Amino acid sequence: MISKPFWSLGPKMPTGLKQSMSSKLVGMYASCGDVSSARKVFDEIPNPNVFSLNWMVLASAFNGWFEQAIGYFSLMQELGMVGNKFSFPVMLKVCVGLMDLNKGKEVHAVVFKMGFEKDVALGNALVDMYCKCGSLCYGHRVFDRMHERDVASWTSMICGYCNVGRTDQGAMLFERMKLEGLEPNYFTWNAVIARYARSGDSNRVYVLLSRMTKEGFVPDLVTWNAIISGFTQSQKAGEAFKFFSAMLVSGVKPNLVTITGLLPACGLIGSVERGREIHGLIFRMGFDINVFVASALIDMYSKCGNVKNARSVFDWTPVNNVASWNAMIGCYGKHGMVDSAVELFNRMQEEGVQATVVTLTSVLSACSHSGSLEKGLEIFRSMKESHGIVVCKEHYGCVVDLLCRSGKMVEAYEFVKSIPINVTESMIGAFFNGCKVHERRDLAKLMADDILKMELKRPGGFVTLSNIYAADGEWEEVEYWKLEKASTKCPCWPSVQQQNDGVIKMRDRTAGVDG
Length: 515
Description:
By secondary structure, the protein is mainly α. The protein is built from 29 helices and 2 strands. The protein is globular, with a radius of gyration of 28 Å.
């Protein structure tokens, strides 16, 4: 690596040479991960060229500084440079990082204007961006218009469909790809197999594994991890353990990803014995000192009802991060041990660990499950001032649940009406359940009327409301709310939308639905 004193020779160089060398130094430092030095050199360049700007965009994006990457790209345009075909794939990755579809469309417009759309790598990046930002319709449109498609093009489109659960379309593309003479790679096979695992379809997984092997692809660690994690996500714990055993028999050794994907399966079946077996394997493989594995172990023991073992893992972890603190606080919360949860939360603050949205949700949930009304409200009111946490829907939901469990139904009604964000199904469901438990049918009816006026229909909440009416024998009301529930489920049901000119028009909800 070139030493930093070389940079200090800059003032003795001719201007043109200095400009060229500075740009190369930016690239050298950025490629070595020394973004700070790259930025120092870059800031000294009077008129940076596309080469140095591309490196700053890339370095910023690689480190997750997406806004900064956009800043350098904007500077490129301000200096009269529109970028080159190396600039745009990185910018599209930035759009994915920000999940900013509109910014992605802006980049696409520039790509089209410059005539780069025929470039395969750029086409692949566009397909990937649209699919990951939730616009399969645009992604498939770009895919269909590509003059040339490679394995990456097909894989990006297949992954796009698989990631949103449209497995059949992904499988059709998979077969079409083979018909067009392109062979899937490991990434393509894994994407399709993982999708079937996430949908809990073990038969399809077995079939695809067999096909994969026959076509010369031996399932590797990534394949097995995707299958195990997929079945755990689809809550098929038995299948997750079967494939874990098959992996071991095949001679593939598990890694940290395998373990963290498998541990939640123990919690799904509540088997602390199976969890201890996995814990023993973790210890033998030397993974027990890893804080992420520790967090997964704490969560597993919590779901299996073993608070003591969860705390032992927490105490034996050399350095706990915010995830492990949250897992232990959440464990206490799930088991109604509000004093222990608050005590650990206070200790977390004392040790200088910054609380997160998840931390406060766990503490508020603990207060809710134990009925600690005053303590919960005190923490909720101090979130912004004491912890710098912006209140979000999860926190509002916890407070609604807390008030309802404590029988404060009038306060809960007023609180829901005062929430500055759109109320969620869980908030409404908690309120209606509270009305049922505390026999406040009057408040449930008021809330239902408010929801209709605000067009915040939530089918789950209406189910509970219809049950309240059924308990009172008011069957006409039950039928009415069942119809309301049906109307919110049908995507083609016309909704009323007031235009800027004050005219009320009917709008079909299918209009503009993304493919």
